[in-house]
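Give me structure tokens for this 373-residue protein.
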Amino acid sequence: MYRILKISVPYRSAVEALYNKDQSLSEKPYAEQVKAIRNSSILMLDFVGHMQNLGTEAEEIYFQIEPLKQAWARENSLHPDTDEYEILKRQVQNFKPDILYVDDSYILGDRVEDLLKSVPGLKISLGRCGSAMTDRAKSQIRYYSHVIGVSLHFVNILQEMGLKSFEVKQGFEDTLLPLLRPETFPESCDVLFCGSFYAMEGGHHLRMSIFWDLVDLPCDFVIRTGTLKPRPIPLEGPSYKDKFIQRVGHLVKPEVSGLRMLEAYMNAKLGLNSHLDANGPLANNMRLYEVTGVGTCLVTDKKVNLPELFEEDREVVTYSSADEAKEKIRWLLDNPFERKKIAEAGQKRTLSEHTTRHRFLGFHQKLLELLHQ
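Here you go.
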């Protein structure tokens, strides 16, 4: 069986919260810090556990966590000021992977080429694409032997660039369900959206245009995000995003992540979804599976492949415009019995077909196929 190593960059806010909660964690040995990170569920995905269950030798390196880097340097007789990238390179070389998977494919910049060349016996290098790419990102992602696309839309784009690509859909980590304590989350609401609002090309222009018109929903509508903070208006006048922030600001509450985000969805009557512009005509983001996975009724934008994932209006509810979203949200709030039926059917579908266990099985089979080519 093969050896696979993943390089991950956990959310900075979640990492800071973990280390602030246990002030002694930063002084503990490397292995104990890694165990604490995995046990905390801040990653929302048990990569090592899933891959080991499939019979592989798997490990994960958490990049850009200073105390973790310092611990590894101490234990491997390196100067504490050693460059973070050089430490990462040593860690990868020590593991001797057959397959190296860099989840945030652009975090290393052009240094990824040097990293990949420095690993003896490396058979496959994996990048990942699930968002719009700048010209610089397009040049960097070419270093990988294969690039994972989170939907066939991205696979097609990557293949048109001349890259080898295959699809691995997002999925719900159902092992988190027993850890959730929604009664400890202090708030509930009628409609909840947790996510980002970026105005770059391929970002969230469609999302902002829909939400602009949802402001006057006659219900408790909450947006949890860290990307709509008011900012000084430039001399040339407010941008569209500045105007959007002013319009929806009264709905915005602090962002939540990890288990707290899932608990927040559990306490909402409806979870609202809107895809990234770069997703094109195809559905596949984490919110599809997180909202349904915790048993909350999902209202999501209509996509051509959605019927392959969920049965519309029985397992999830779809909209094609802000007016349709308003109409369906009102109906669902007025009909709690039907809303509950849809939520239960959506959760059943996700847990039976769309968990990370299902995704990792397909991922593993694809890797075996590539290794034997």
